């Protein structure tokens, strides 16, 4: 009986239907070697013996971002480009500052879910579900409140108050990416053909011409 059970186990291990994956990171860390010419999905690891505390450190998130812009907001991202030690760890964060009536406009993170915590002030936040429902899930948040934006969905944050607001966001990627909807659609380089956008938005081409002529700023740094 013992021999039969052993044969069954060995066959199961050898079967192409058996699925397996790494349980997690295979090393303590993989600090990004940004000087390496090798291109991989992420960054090549530095020699662990060359790693030091600065590779895991960022200073200045206590300083407000400059909200003196048309959006009245500023996103200070702390991702793998700021902390090399985040490489392969699947996390990053950001500080978002809002002037009164400041907006972090509709955008998506193609590689990350976002968890937002309001530190100061009050924000109206929301995300839109995918087709065909396109439901708006929205809520007013106050200091200490937490809200989740699922990966890839369009979302926004708006300061409805007369005072500044501050939020911290955690993201489930070392490099979440940001696609600001208006910038991508109307500020692409080169421009999307106006006839395509006119048909997509069901408006006159003159409206598209006007929108494409605007300055579409980026509030991320």
TrEMBL record:
Thylakoid keyword on record: no
Gene3D superfamilies given in the database record: Jelly Rolls
Positions that bind oxalate: 104, 109, 114
SUPFAM superfamilies (alphabetical): RmlC-like cupins (SSF51182)
Disulfide bond sites: 30-45
A GO cellular-component term linked to this record: apoplast
Highest taxon listed in the record's lineage: Eukaryota
Signal peptide: 1-20
Keyword match Signal: yes
MF-aspect GO terms: manganese ion binding
UniProt entry keywords in alphabetical sequence: Apoplast, Disulfide bond, Manganese, Metal-binding, Secreted, Signal
Domain Cupin type-1 as annotated: residue spans: 59-209
Similarity comment text for this entry: Belongs to the germin family.
Name of protein: Germin-like protein
Protein source organism: Acorus calamus (Sweet flag)
């Amino acid at each position: 009986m013992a021999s039969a059970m052993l044969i069954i186990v060995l066959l199961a291990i050898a079967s192409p239907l058996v699925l397996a994956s790494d349980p997690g990171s295979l090393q303590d860390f993989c600090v990004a070697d940004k000087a390496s010419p090798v291109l991989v999905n992420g960054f090549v690891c530095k020699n662990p013996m060359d790693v030091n505390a600065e590779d895991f450190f960022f200073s200045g998130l206590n300083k407000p971002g400059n909200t003196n812009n048309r959006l009245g907001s500023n996103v200070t991202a702390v991702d793998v480009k700021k902390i090399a030690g985040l490489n392969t760890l699947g996390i990053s964060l950001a500080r978002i500052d809002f002037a009164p009536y400041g907006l972090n406009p509709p955008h998506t993170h193609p590689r990350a879910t976002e968890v937002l915590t309001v530190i100061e002030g009050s924000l109206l936040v929301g995300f839109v579900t995918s087709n065909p429902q396109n439901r708006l899930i929205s809520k007013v948040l106050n200091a200490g409140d937490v809200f989740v934006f699922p990966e890839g969905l369009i979302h926004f944050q708006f300061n409805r108050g007369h005072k500044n607001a501050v939020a911290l966001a955690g993201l489930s990627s070392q490099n979440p990416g940001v696609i600001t909807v208006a910038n991508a659609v109307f500020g692409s380089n080169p421009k999307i053909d106006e006839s395509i956008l006119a048909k997509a938005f069901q408006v006159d081409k003159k409206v598209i011409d006007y929108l494409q002529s605007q300055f579409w700023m980026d509030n991320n740094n």
